[in-house]
Design goal:
The complex is a heterodimer of chains A (221) and B (181).
Chain A (H helix, E strand, L loop, with lengths): L6 H8 L12 H4 L2 H26 L4 H19 L3 E2 L5 H51 L6 E4 L5 E12 L5 E11 L2 E11 L5 E7 L11
Antiparallel strand pairs in A: 2-3, 3-4, 4-5, 5-6
Helix pairs in contact in A: 1-3, 4-5
Chain B lengths: L3 E2 L5 H17 L1 H12 L2 H17 L10 H22 L4 H6 L5 H10 L5 H7 L2 H12 L4 H8 L3 H22 L2
The chains are: A alpha+beta (221), B mainly alpha (181).
Chain lengths: 221, 181
């Protein structure tokens, strides 16, 4: 049907973003039952999405985040207020020097702190990924299908279970295994399915990881 | 006032602006945290990301243009920090895509596995969406942002925002259909 809006058109229409849509395809012009049903479904989905995120917004903010902001602004104030000395106390040159060094120092400290935070975040992420990879290699190499293996990363809030589900030889003669995995991190659980094949060198190469909804993943045959 | 040197005109104004920005930043912490959670899905990672974002924002406050949205600017910082971390950790895995292109037949098994997946819970399904789709849902559906703003925050073409949002909604819609009797 050429005159019918696509699902993407409907999605944009709901958000009032259909400006460049041709008149004939406008959902409010088409006005057929199927389009109306799809619009109603989008509305239901949106309600669920709002409910999902509402819970997250209601969670209390950890005090250390507020403290981090307070600390950052205190430093800024100290920096801009640091030159407010009576003229008789310090020569102009000295106050300018102090201001200059103070400014550079405060920038340096703030930057260092941000870098430390980023590094900690990155280290946790990597530790989790390493634990997952080690567990995957071990499970695929040594465990029968149906066996479930748990793993946890010592330094990260990251744990999970891996279970091979099917084993077969590929057309090129490689052993391949399908597996399911459950990853738990930060109180959130993710169910995934994956496929890995054994390389000639002996390692298992993860070829696909499927979280439903991933655009790189074939949902329809 | 006595002996205040140098009394830069506008210093008081600058301090007042800082006060306001500080308050606004604290006030937007819950939303910033929700944004970070939508990306990381781990509370610990989200909190680290939020803290790094705030510190980076405060250190670079000169780059923020008063009068523009502070939240969009900070979302963008958070998104960049997160993307850098992901990029670094993925660099060594980048050869995988080459292998994937030559992956041999597994479609039967895959189709079977997918059909077995019980998509009972639409809400749980949101957890499983690709990170960017979930973030776009948050920004458009919950925060009511225009596609143009979202494209700017996430540094994506507007067409990509449009299509990913539609894809996410379609996925959830199908899941919804599946749960109906």
């Amino acid at each position: 049907m050429s005159g019918k809006p696509t699902f993407e058109d409907l999605s944009a229409f709901v958000d009032g973003e259909q400006a460049d849509m041709s008149g004939a395809a406008r959902p409010d012009v088409v006005n057929d039952a199927e389009t109306a049903a799809l619009l109603a479904e989008i509305s239901s989905v949106d309600s669920l999405v709002r409910a999902y995120f509402r819970d997250e917004a209601d969670q209390p903010v950890p005090d250390h985040l507020v403290a981090a902001i307070d600390r950052g602004f205190e430093k800024r104030r100290a920096r801009s207020g640091g030159s407010a000395w009576p003229a008789s106390w310090l020569p102009i040159a000295a106050s300018l020097l102090i201001a200059a060094f103070g400014l550079a120092g405060a920038f340096y400290v703030a930057e260092q702190r941000a870098q430390t935070q980023i590094a900690a975040y990155e280290a946790r992420w990597k530790a989790g990924q390493r634990a997952l990879e080690a567990a995957l290699q071990d499970t695929l190499e040594t465990k029968a299908s149906g066996t479930e293996v748990s793993f946890a990363s010592g330094t990260a809030d990251f744990q999970g279970r891996i279970s091979p589900t099917r084993t077969y030889r590929s057309r090129t003669g490689h052993w391949c295994r399908e597996f399911s995995e459950v990853i738990e991190s930060g109180g959130v659980r993710e169910h995934r399915r994956g496929l890995a094949c054994r390389e000639d060198s002996g390692g298992w190469q993860r070829l696909e990881t499927t979280i439903s909804g991933d655009p790189g993943f074939r949902l329809t045959q | 006032m006595f002996g205040c040197y140098p009394c830069k005109p506008g210093r008081d104004t600058a301090l007042r602006v800082n006060d306001d920005v500080q308050k606004e930043m604290v006030a937007l912490l819950p939303r910033l945290r929700r944004f970070a959670l939508a990306m990381t899905r781990s509370e610990a990672d989200a909190d680290d990301l939020v803290q790094a974002t705030c510190e980076r924002a405060i250190a670079n406050l000169e780059k923020w243009e008063p009068g523009t949205r502070l939240d969009s600017w900070m979302y963008r910082i958070a998104q960049n920090l997160h993307r850098n971390v992901i990029r670094q950790s993925k660099r060594r895995e980048s050869h995988l895509s080459v292998v994937e292109a030559t992956a041999d037949s597994h479609s039967d098994g895959e189709a079977a596995a997918i059909s077995q997946m019980a998509l009972k819970d639409v809400v749980a399904q949101i957890d499983r969406l690709p990170e960017e789709q979930r973030v776009i849902l948050l920004l458009v559906v919950v925060e009511g942002r225009r596609y143009r703003d979202v494209a700017e925050i996430l540094d994506l073409p507007i067409g990509t925002v449009t299509s990913r949002l539609a894809k996410a909604r379609d996925m959830l819609r199908q899941c919804l259909e599946g749960t109906e009797p």
